[in-house]
Amino acid sequence: MISKSKYLIALFAALFLLLLGIQAYFMYKTYQVKEREIYRTVHEGLTHYTDRLEDLGGIKSRTDDSIQKVLINYHDKKISKEDFLAYFEKNRKANEKSLSDYVDSRFKKEGYKIATKTEYLSIVYIPDSTQLIDQPIILYETKNKVTNPKISNTGNWETTSKSTSTDGKPGKNDSFIVKSNTGFEILNIKSIVFKELSLLTISCIAILASVLLIYIFTVKNLAQQQKQVEVLHTVVDNISHEFKTPIATLKIASKTLKKGWNPETLPLIDRQINRLEKLMLQLHKDETSVEILSIQPGDWNFFVQDLSFTYPETDFELNKEVSEELLFDKNLMETLIKNLCENSVKYGASQVKVNINNGFQHLKIEISDDGCGIEKKELNHIFEKFYRVQSDNIHNTKGLGLGLYFVKEIVTKYKGTIDVSSRPKAGTTFKISLPYEN
User: Fold this and answer.
1) What is the pTM of this model?
2) Rounded Cα distance, 303 and 334, in Å
3) Is beta strand 326-329 parallel, antiparallel or unpaired with respect to 294-295?
4) Does residue 310 contact residue 248 with C-beta atoms inside 8 Å?
5) Neighbours of 242 (CB within 10 A)
6) Secondary structure string (H, E, C) spanning 249-270
7) pLDDT, tens digit, for every residue of 269-315?
8) Cα 332 from Cα 292, distance rounded (Å)
9) 20 to 30 A from 30, CA-CA: which of 63, 103, 136, 173?
10) Three-class DSSP category at 359
């Protein structure tokens, strides 16, 4: 299930990135369309005015020959290049304010900050094909300077004038081909477009955020359900494992009763029945409050007695230096002791020693056996869930690999430590230390 979840997360991430890319591409295209639309509006609003201004100040339809004469004089080298350029610079400055005022007032309502300029790109004297300028000459320009014109209007026309000689003879024809360009730029175009697209942008972000939040909520809910399933499996595994010991003990007690009366058999049966009842209550712990019983000094003896009764072929020896009640869960301590001892029996132990003492705020439990031992390479894995040592010497019963796992869980619950040492064919020793407060 976890591996499937990983694949689903990867699939969603890919699809989400694809959706994000589509949204980004859609927003980019919308931005371009909106930008072109705004420039088209500006172009329509300014083209007529700039054309009329160029007609009035340029050489397309002047009623006098002032600019024509300047061009002819410059071609005939009667004026210098500095004077030629100064003429156009003076014209630009004279019209800069009126052009800027018109542009600002024309689009004040829309809030557009517009820059425009009209310039001559080339002026060619037709008779000898002489290029009069080597770089563009600005004819008109607003106070806001154009750096990167988005829309440009280019025009070509020919202008001709005929001069007369002093002796009455026909003069020469002075013709020029002029190429001009008018460029527009909206300096605050980005802020304007983003402002107009703000609602669309917020909607797109909201959609993406909603999809992401729904997915996160779904994954989180799935993880919680998976965790609940794992907890349920752990409880079932625990209960099923714990049921084995009292059931086996009750079977042996039943056989003993059939053979003859033994005064110790009935208390043993009572203890195992109580244990089964407590295990059943654990299955319904959400419905019934389970009373946690602290462990009494005599309980340790009963744990070992029950083991001796269940496994009569194994010698269990208890050395106990505990004379007071301890606030540990009796059921958990019984599980800890019996799981370790049964593990020893399962791996061929004929003698199991259980040493229990309570030192300074620590309960010390040491269980050693003379069984087949554990290889060094296996020691790091014996507390893993469902892990079983691969050996041909497994004694008496088969297991699920849960006993030592539950021992480790109990020790961890009480913030204790557990150490294990073992030699193949020489036995194993478990040392447990559980802290407590008086």
Assistant:
1) 0.45
2) 6
3) antiparallel
4) yes
5) 23
6) HHHHHHHHHHHCCCCCHHHHHH
7) 767 777 666 666 555 555 444 556 788 888 898 888 888 888 888 89
8) 10
9) 103
10) coil
